Amino acid sequence: MPTNTPATVVRRLRDESLKVIAIAEVQQALSRQGLEPETSTPQELAARIKSETATWAQVIKEAGIKGE
User: Which of 2, 24, 39, 64 is buried most, with the most CB atoms less than 10 Å from its CB?
Assistant: First the structure.
């Protein structure tokens, strides 16, 4: 999925997000909610989204789920 967001902006958002995720209080708050932070590159995230979309599309199709 192509993006129109400049690479410098994507890099800055990722860098700042990594700083926030590294804060102990943030890690604790996420943990209390049952969440585990996971980091990746923008390319890895795009590949994961593509894979997850295909997986769940197949599950939905096989289950016969229809939108209302």
Answer: 39
pTM: 0.64
d(CA 1, CA 46): 7
4-25 confidence digits (pLDDT tens): 899 899 999 999 999 999 999 9
Dist CA 15 CA 26 (whole Å) = 16
Distance of CA 56 to the CA centre of its chain: 15
Token pair 């943030």 in the structure block, residue: 26
Please give the Cα distance from 36 to 32 (Å, whole number).
10
